[in-house]
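Hi R.,

Here are the chain sequences for the assembly we discussed:
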Amino acid sequence: MHTQLRRRSAAVVTAVALLAGCSGTAPGSSPAKSTATGTVRYAAPGSPSNAVTDPHGLLPGESDVVRMALTYDVLTVPGADGSTKPRLATAWRPDATLTRWRVTIRGDATFSDGRPVRAADALFSLRRMGRKAAENFGRMAMFDLDASTTIDDTTFELVTRKPYAEVGKALEGATFVVPEGSDDFGKPVPGSGPFRPTDKGGAQAVVYERNDDWWGPKPPASTIEVRAVPDPQARAQALLSGQVDLAGGVPATLARQQEGNSAVRLLRRPGATLYPLVMRLDTKPFDDLRVRQAVRLALDRQQLLDTVFLGYGEIGNDLITPKDPTSPATLRQRTRDLAQARKLMSEAGLADGVDLTLHTTTAYPGMDSAATLIAQQLAEIGMRVKVAVEPADTYFSAVYARKPFYLSYLGGIPFLDVVRVALTPGSPTNETAWQDRTWSAKLGKALAEPDDTERRALLGDLQAELRDQGGYAIWALSDRLDLARAGLSGVPEGIGFASAFIDQVSLDG
Amino acid sequence: MPWPARVPARAVLLMAAASVVIFLCTAALPGDAADVLGGGRAGPGELARLRAEQGLDRPLHVRYLDWLAGVLTGDPGVSLITGRPIGELVAQRAGVTLTLAVLALAVGVPLTAALAWAAVRGPGWLRHPANAVIVAGAALPQAVVAAALVAWLSAGWGLFPPVSMLPAGEPAWSRPDLLALPVLTLALPIAAYGAALLRGAIGDVVTRPYVRDAELRGLPPATIVLRYVLPMIAAPATRLLAVTLGGLVAGTAVAETLFGLAGLGELLVTAISTRDVPVVQSVALLAAAVVVAGLTAADAAAPGRRRETARP
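And here is the predicted structure of the full complex:
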């Protein structure tokens, strides 16, 4: 009651102020509108306890990326269709060798302390990301940042280690630009993003106020509250009980219940998450291509989609990044073929079957039930699969890229990012032990191809080859499900980093 | 050792023992913060560099002494994952958790007394159900209690919201409606647990000859309770209170996570899962300090116990 009273008196004050203001300005401007767009409250996946302030290291929760994307400008962003869009960087042009790139940044961005954002700040930030490679999965690995130089206030030259045509994509999403020399992030450092963090939130939420000096399209909301909520059920319930306006990543069961509820809107982002089934090529029996093919043919993809993701998604075609714009779209859908799978098993000398352990965890919803169902499906071709459910907190250090057979996790990652992390020969995280020399050579050639159409085709071929020869089985893709209150609009489309840029959200509908 | 010196000395010893146990437990966890920061995607060389940066490559006893020195000088260090000062992390969350803990005790203590009384001295028809409630309540996990409360009081009767997003920047007590379910989630199990422990003590006391004697002399029940029963159970009750409060400081994790509150329990659980050892140690030590302080207070203010030990 106490707060209701306070809210009511605040409303009275606002109304009086608006009336007073309106009398002198254009008549008919609607006061309702300006109050309605006040504060947007977002419950994002993440934990308030490990909320980081350093934008260049590990960003443990999605809420961290959202907070950084409000505070700082990034060089480029992924669009809804997966293509690269300019943000702080307006242009990125290579020389003839595709190893030296001139990146131009806007001249009109300023940090919250009034300093202009210069090319030197951008290059400093990239170098800092390079130094923190261990914590950001080597995002800057393609650049020789020591050899890169600042040209003038708005231009810098990025040097790549090899010809690399996808520099715009490499700068997407997480390239948060901070003032040159910033190294202590114990306290927030000035940003040049669309919003500015305040210290009003305490431990429960971070309250952002609109940065009216931002160069970009004026955000409709004057305040955005970001709250990290670890439990998906709690995020959804917060939305349903009106305590927040947007809930990120809600459980499929709850989404289903809310279909038909006109007070809320279910937002679906196709292909946001997949749990690849990993088979290590250097371990028996998966060193035999026929066994890997048998596994891919034995999976009942529709059943997995319906059971694990309650149908919110689409069946997989063993393509590791099906939503990447370079992913081949015309391949025939792989379907279950038990006869062929059994034949391949016999040819591989496994007519009597084989004993396997499939590792999984509860880190993401449905991972454990997926493994159980996969084990049942593989039993039909003689694979006796024991499911081992591992602790969530050590899964990615103890199982990932170590065990020969497990469920991995990918969330909206572009193809070249997966290549860098998991498909590079000799990389400690080459989880499938994929080291096909000709494939790697073709990758180098594709990245040195300046023609966009030609390069896309080459990258697509690589993905098709990986699909048939590699160690992954991609059985389904799940939608990312968000719940919003009915009037909310401006939530970005697209998956991965694209979904973090919420500066244009509005309660006006 | 005379009493006034013995009690603080015991408290110091207990805290020292607790700090060692906490340190060893965190050291025994598989993996470390470097593994978490690397997200499984960092190579051995990079991991070694991270460990060196974090001081995780130093010998165990050096890390322990370093941490202890920090805690004693009021600087528990920074989080390995977020780089933020631990003092600040704890201070930001202490308000929510303390509010929850105090309210849970405020609800739980009278409930404990009522349950224990009903189980031991209540009318015959009440004793069995009361005992059943105590056993079931003490055995139910918090998550189940929370789910039942949400189903009943929130979904069923619409009394309280099913989650508790506290308004940003306002103190927890400004929204009692948001605290009701988390507080009940905490209070019901501790009341059942407390009653389970206390009903024995109460049962003992009420069969003592001097209580019987007082009853035979026709003293009013209130007088008997105040003069004979309460002093005898004061010590176990205070000790129980201390342990319960200490448990609440870090044990609110389930309630906090389910209801979406950022408190110390949530901090502790997240820190354990991210191997953020200095954070785990600090929160656990804080909880230990509350328990030890309570036990010390119980020792200091336990006439019943001293009388008992004095008796041959």
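Chain B has two domains: 3-72, 88-305. Residues 304-312 of chain B have pLDDT under 50 and may be disordered.

Let me know if anything looks off.

Best,
T.
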